[in-house]
Amino acid sequence: MSYYINIINLETGEIMISMADKEIIGKKFEQRDGIVIDVDQNFYGSKLVDDEEALIYLKSADILILTGSKIVDMAIKEGIVNPDSVLEINGVKHVQVYKFAF
């Protein structure tokens, strides 16, 4: 499987990664209640990664923004995302994660 990824080094020193399933890039998903997610390539990046590389990024990032059933399910399987935190927008999974360090 392939995912588009955008890696941003924040001024705080944290790494923010947005990742989306390849198949949904460029699409927009809406629900009747007004929730919309636009899977724009400008936000999710133009670099493609496979499962192995995606997993490395999932484990190393401080902030994650994930869209798509495949990438979200991988993050759940690896214990990075709590399934109760996942939104489904017109059938597409989306989650945002901030890893706190104490």
Automatic annotation (TrEMBL):
One Pfam short name: DUF424
Protein name from the UniProt record: DUF424 domain-containing protein
Lineage: Archaea, Thermoproteota, Thermoprotei, Acidilobales, Caldisphaeraceae
